[in-house]
Amino acid sequence: MIAIIAGTNRPDAVSLQIAQLYHQLLAERGATSQILDLNQLPPDFAFSALYANAGKNPEVNKLNQLMTEAEKYVFVIPEYNGSFPGVLKTFIDGLPYPNPMRQKVAALVGLGSGVQGGVLALSHFNDILSYLNVETLALRVKLANINKNLADGQIHNHLYNELLNTQADRLVAYAPALVQV
Amino acid sequence: MIAIIAGTNRPDAVSLQIAQLYHQLLAERGATSQILDLNQLPPDFAFSALYANAGKNPEVNKLNQLMTEAEKYVFVIPEYNGSFPGVLKTFIDGLPYPNPMRQKVAALVGLGSGVQGGVLALSHFNDILSYLNVETLALRVKLANINKNLADGQIHNHLYNELLNTQADRLVAYAPALVQV
Amino acid sequence: MIAIIAGTNRPDAVSLQIAQLYHQLLAERGATSQILDLNQLPPDFAFSALYANAGKNPEVNKLNQLMTEAEKYVFVIPEYNGSFPGVLKTFIDGLPYPNPMRQKVAALVGLGSGVQGGVLALSHFNDILSYLNVETLALRVKLANINKNLADGQIHNHLYNELLNTQADRLVAYAPALVQV
Amino acid sequence: MIAIIAGTNRPDAVSLQIAQLYHQLLAERGATSQILDLNQLPPDFAFSALYANAGKNPEVNKLNQLMTEAEKYVFVIPEYNGSFPGVLKTFIDGLPYPNPMRQKVAALVGLGSGVQGGVLALSHFNDILSYLNVETLALRVKLANINKNLADGQIHNHLYNELLNTQADRLVAYAPALVQV
User: Fold this and answer.
1) Among A28, B18, D3, D10, which has the minimal tally of Cβ within 10 Å of its Cβ?
2) In terms of CA atoms, which chain B residue is nearest residue A91?
3) Is the CATH number of domain B2-176 3.40.1550.10?
4) B50-73 pLDDT, tens per residue?
5) A vs C: CB pairs below 8 A
6) Strand, helix or coil at A72?
7) ipTM of the complex in this document
8) Beta-carbon neighbour count of residue C98 at 10 Å?
9) pLDDT tens digit string along D7-63?
10) In this complex, which of C81, C91, C92 lies closest to D93 when CB atoms are compared?
11) Domain D2-179: which CATH class?
């Protein structure tokens, strides 16, 4: 199972639409995936599920369970203030130890309303995944001017669709067992 | 007034001790400062003070007010998973628009229990401040092996104390009005 | 004197045109500047002016002398392979020790033929300047699609001109003596 | 064949010793490797093998041929001024197009005389490899205080040896064909 993390708690987020689109791309390749919408986190999770409270929040435990069961990950990351959303990092900070993503593989999709498509957000997040020993696909997909390029839940930009398809192909083809040393 | 942000919501955080120590460094230089402890945030702030709820949480408004009144900033940033804590970024994501730190100046202090002292955390955070048009002092102080180097609220490491003092000198001497173009 | 470094050795580089344009922006503000074109480096400088040969290449010594005399810096940085040009970094690696830019101030201008305008290049380069204790203006100007936006040595993009002017204002206004602690 | 790039042109570089040590690690795993010592580059390569002169320098062509034949890469990267050496990036900037490393895999080893072990250098370099579509192993090995930890061509630090061995295992086990979509 591939976990697709919609990386913000903003209601009606564009990231969720991209997550749903990615879910479809994976389905077309015969891969099962499940969307984790960070908007579904319990509102107080930064306090009720971290540090001394780690493991004590049943709703967060359910999400962490999905993160543990998943074999691969897609992170859909909107650009907030030149980086990833704080809520996404807090979710990562609250994952159980040892980190359930360790030595698995992740694909990164950035998006933004501006011209960058989250390029710094993805660079920062790749550093975090490297720290956690999560293999990250080289191809970071950056969706800029997202409001112009997304309509009716579909990307209307040939290059972006090509990149998303290539990334999905690579993620599905990736054989994590071979790097599980 | 200089705002010193203790960048985590972890109870009894080392970051808070460093913030208190920095408060003293500034007092010795005749500079008034105030500590903002992110552990004092309302537990649900990531939901109750962002997006449609921006400005609606009185407790967060008080902190944002301090961020607005401050003329300079010190960010004390513990390394969490190879970057800054998600809670710190969420706090930044919830600041009012336009950002109250714009064209002011910030000093960065990183800390960690390992050998890095938050070097990547500070690099990432500098990118965010640059995005927000906040001048950041070149000297990023990185306190590694913090558990070994901190006791009784004091740093017991000559180099680290020297760096903190130099940074505090520069922060106090910095004349933001001159760059307010 | 402000040194403007055209950050590549590519002949007829667009970076040199941007450097000339910046020279004019500074002149309009009454500030003297001098362009250092890295295409003028002796071809073997990476070997004849580094390590045991540091200080032995008279042509490089002349450039280093300008770097020493300068009080402020503008780095014009084209994006090469997702970062700054290797030649620019080699020039930095060959500067005398202690680094002549120490505790002075720099402004960063990135440019690229693609949509990013060197955003990662500037992030990486800011890390280097921080390491060298060079204050870097928060405003990193990123000139994307440069081939479309530059003609006859002028930028034809309102936002870009505004950003360049704001940055030049701040660089000229910056009072380094105040942070020379 | 695995290419091991000793990432500096400094004579008698520690990086070359680490490259030789890595060569041995790979040999123990039955993997053929070849060291590319950037000190062997023709001194004027930044001018004689880039831009209009690309492909015209026979000595550089030989190195580029090795980069093309290699199926995997190890980059040994000393920290210079808070990042990778300029010469290493210039070598990358001069590689033929399309880049011969595309969709192959690389392992990163950083080293430094200080406490960081090149952590920022590796982060920056990972961004470059991502840009070039080169898969990079999550595990970035950082060798700090290298002068203390290296003697007689051997690393005398249990953790460092463990990390190097784990990384070598993963590099050898990595099956690039599976991600060649």
Assistant:
1) A28
2) B86
3) no
4) 999 999 999 999 999 999 999 999
5) 17
6) strand
7) 0.96
8) 9
9) 999 999 999 999 999 999 999 999 999 999 999 999 999 999 999 999 999 999 999
10) C81
11) alpha beta
